[in-house]
Specification:
single chain; mainly beta; Jelly Rolls; 7-stranded antiparallel beta sheet; globular
Length: 125
Amino acid sequence: MSHLIRLSQARTIETPAAVMRSFVTPSGHSSATHAVWRTEVPSNASGPVHTIDTLHVVVVVSGELEAVVDGEAHHVGPGDCLVLPAGSLRRLTGGPDGAVTITSAAPGSNATVGDGTPVRVPWAN
């Protein structure tokens, strides 16, 4: 196992709202106890309102996020850390210049969107 994972080596998953680059996941590192990924959110792009069944810890590296968590609005700037408890209703939106974040979570995250059917979070698994 390599001790260094370059950005160019990260598994990339694109959605309409962001690009996720997985550095550490159980599928890539069988002994991983956490998943770690980088998210690149374009200017003013929003993901859907959703819940996730595991705690997610999000640190903004550059740019800004507007986050609504359980009905409470937060402005999250560079260096700030957003703690998203398991089961919290959330929506994240890129700021005027977008945002780059690093997120850590326990592997095996499932998101619930729309009709309530859980969906595996691919960049965390």
